[in-house]
């Protein structure tokens, strides 16, 4: 067995939806992209120095996640990670808050962007993960998107 077979990388997502004083939670997984894995590889080789996951983006693309995707199908909104912390061994936690006045459209996809080129500009940086998630977001709803990266 090779080491890469024994050390998986996956992301667990929890979205907390607040609306009219009620809280609803949804949990699901995301797909780690080949670009994300290659960014980690490049850091180990000294070819990349910035692995930080900096932004969460949402869009309305409905194509199934694929490891070869470099960006969301149709990115419509992007926001910096609100807070990040270390979890257990091999875990990193990131949270982004989307206020009631932000991203008011039908959300179909979520992506996480890292690296030195990640900025407020759509499709910038390395998309390390993508997930499909359907929500008709309105100005009476806030979202807290939490992601736990687990390596190993």
General description of the model:
The protein is mainly β and 152 residues long. The chain has one domain (3-151). 10% of the residues lie in helices and 51% in strands. The protein has helices at residues 3-6, 34-44, and strands spanning 9-19, 22-32, 53-59, 75-80, 83-86, 91-98, 106-114, 126-136, 141-151. The chain has a 9-stranded antiparallel beta sheet. β5 and β6 form a beta hairpin. The chain is globular.
Descriptive keywords:
mainly beta; nine-stranded antiparallel β-sheet; 152 residues; globular
Instruction: Tell me the Rg in angstroms.
Output: 15 Å
The helix-and-strand class reads mainly beta
Q: Give the terminus-to-terminus CA distance.
A: 15 Å
The number of helices is: 2
Specify the helix fraction band.
under 10%
Number of strands: 9
Mean pLDDT: 93
Q: Give a short account of the largest sheet.
A: 9 strands, antiparallel
Estimate the global geometry from the Cα principal axes: globular
Strand content: over 45%
| Order of secondary-structure elements | HEEHEEEEEEE
| pLDDT < 50 stretches | none
What number of domains? 1
Order of strands, main sheet, comes to 4-3-7-8-2-1-9-6-5
Chart the SSEs and their pairings.
Layout: H1 3-6, E1 9-19, E2 22-32, H2 34-44, E3 53-59, E4 75-80, E5 83-86, E6 91-98, E7 106-114, E8 126-136, E9 141-151
């Amino acid at each position: 067995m090779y080491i890469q077979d024994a050390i998986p990388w996956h992301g667990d997502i929890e979205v907390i939806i607040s609306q009219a004083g009620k809280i609803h939670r949804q949990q699901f997984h995301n797909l780690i992209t080949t670009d994300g894995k290659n960014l980690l590889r490049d850091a180990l080789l000294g070819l990349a120095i910035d692995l930080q996951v900096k932004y969460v983006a949402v869009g309305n693309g409905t194509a199934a996640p694929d490891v070869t995707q470099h960006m969301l199908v149709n990115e419509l909104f992007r926001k910096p990670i609100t807070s990040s912390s270390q979890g257990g061994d091999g875990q990193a936690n990131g949270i982004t808050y989307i206020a009631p006045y932000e991203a008011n459209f039908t959300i179909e996809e979520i992506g996480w962007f890292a690296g030195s080129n990640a900025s407020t500009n759509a499709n910038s940086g390395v998309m390390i993960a993508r997930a499909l998630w359907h929500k008709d977001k309105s100005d009476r709803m806030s979202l807290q998107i939490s992601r736990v990266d687990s390596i190993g």
